[in-house]
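We close this part of the discussion by returning to an individual protein. Part of our work consisted of pairing the sequence of a single chain with a tokenised description of its backbone. No coordinates are needed to read the tokens, only the vocabulary itself. The amino acid sequence and the backbone structure tokens for this protein are reproduced below:
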Amino acid sequence: MNPIKTMLAVAAVLLAAGAQGQALQSCYKSKWGPDDQRGAMNNVTAAHTLAAIKLVKRGKAIRMAIETNSKTPAYPPRFFSLTVVTPGQEYGRTIGETKTSYNDDIITGWVGIGTQLDGLGHLGIDGVYYNCLKGSEIVATAGLKKLGIEQVPAVATRGVILDMVGLTGKDPGPEGTAFNRKEIEAALKRQNIAPIGQGDVVIFYTGWTRLIGQDDKRYGSVEPGLGVDGATWLASLGVAMVGADTWALEVLPSEDPKKAFHVHQILLAMNGVYILENVVAEEAVKDGVYEGLFTLGASRVTGAVQAIINPVFLY
């Protein structure tokens, strides 16, 4: 046998094995089994919901969404357009003896705009998504076959707001400012609230959304946000969702410019933790309230990747 050919064959086998091993690194199985599509929302139990209800002291409910319209800054090439129509009522026509009039509306645009929920099928690692689901097997033009937004259960759990403006003394927080375990623990200590725990929803307040309409270019290109160490630590605590009043949650420019949206990968693909973007918490911060009942019912659009949302925070 030709020794050179033998060496080449062995090298090919080793390279193939190495490539296979590297591919496996992009696959993270769910601790809840091969059929799991709920991700970290499995950490929210009835006990968590009942405990969160007890945090409501004032009976105040606030909306946590920004308005969504054609001027809302969005990650390119996303856009949003609303058209109001009056079907069959041209020239002042009405319906029936009661002269009924009505309006309908048509949305043309992308779902990943405004205050939004990133589902587990939104972002993966080399074409592989949460629970080792391959994009080639679950993604279709008509909608995701698995990990669609319709799988997100009703959310009612403890919400924790981290006032990073108060911590840093900068309003809004400067772009490129990373929030990692050190900063998160410092915010918790400053705010004098209980540690973050399993099933919680964590929201970072940075003041960033106030740039909307004032400096849209800056707003939509950079931001303060969650760092890799912070994302890994929060996921290890068993949080259900992480959000911020920024368009992408994670710090930009990123800590490592070679790793694009790595925090998204850590939360979504590796740990099944949902991401909330453009979630505003300024009113609660002004009231000096940092924990309460966080509620959310995502629209059940079958196979959708994301959802435009309006979470409600009660305290």
Observations:
- Confidence is low (pLDDT under 50) at residues 1-24.
- The radius of gyration is 23 Å.
